[in-house]
Amino acid sequence: GKSPGTEFYFIFFYVGGRMEYLPDSNARYKDVNYWNERYSTEEKNILMLGCGNSALSYDMYQAGYTSITNVDYSSICVESMAERHKDCAQLSWLCMDARRLAFPDGVFDVVLEKGTLDAMLVEESDPWKVSENAAKLLHQVLLEVSRVLKPGGRFISVTFAQPHFRKRLYARAEYNWSIKHYHYGSSFHYFMYVLTKGEELSPEDAALERRLLKEAEAPPTDVNFQEVDSEDFLNNIGL
Known about the structure:
Keywords: Methyltransferase, Phosphoprotein, S-adenosyl-L-methionine, Transferase. Helix content is 36%, strand content 20%. It is α/β, with parallel strands linked by helices. A seven-stranded mixed sheet has the order 3-2-1-4-5-7-6, sandwiched between helices. The radius of gyration is 22 Å and the shape is globular. It starts with 5 loop residues before the first helix and ends with a helix. Residues 18-23 and 233-239 have low confidence and may be disordered.
């Protein structure tokens, strides 16, 4: 089958939590020996949020991450993936709403999503200001992600969304996590956000949250147009 690309190795690396071993050049991300030297696949309990029909869970399973719970809103998708991977005993497939995850608090070492939040925002026209409904949806999902993560656990979000758009959604003290972001890819850049539960927001991200809260509380600006006599107005502009 097709071998995993750079994207997979980035995810593989951050799921393992071995961030102290960042390579000294991007080229080494494709060096399999680098991962063999630096990386151990200690058992981690992983939640794949909005798995779809992606091969990512299977690739990770093949790499030694066998305890992966996959959830998706589509029952047809879940049934199809369960059948396709029926020989992988520790890959479980569940139909579930990301806003109401049916798991106890603090059970996952890693929650991973790749494009799931992008799909939830696909109808948004202004990336600087998402609609009230979309903001509410994302808030519900992110609260649930934080809830099911263990202390020190990581939420890994893979997206095309640049930091100045996506960090606006992630930078909330309520979620009880820090935010780091990385990018990779050549023709198209992917962005990976690594949010670690139990760590505080950086001063920069905390300031972003305060600014956004202040903007949200500010009353809308009313624009008053002075009424003028239409005939005088037309005369004044030379018509």
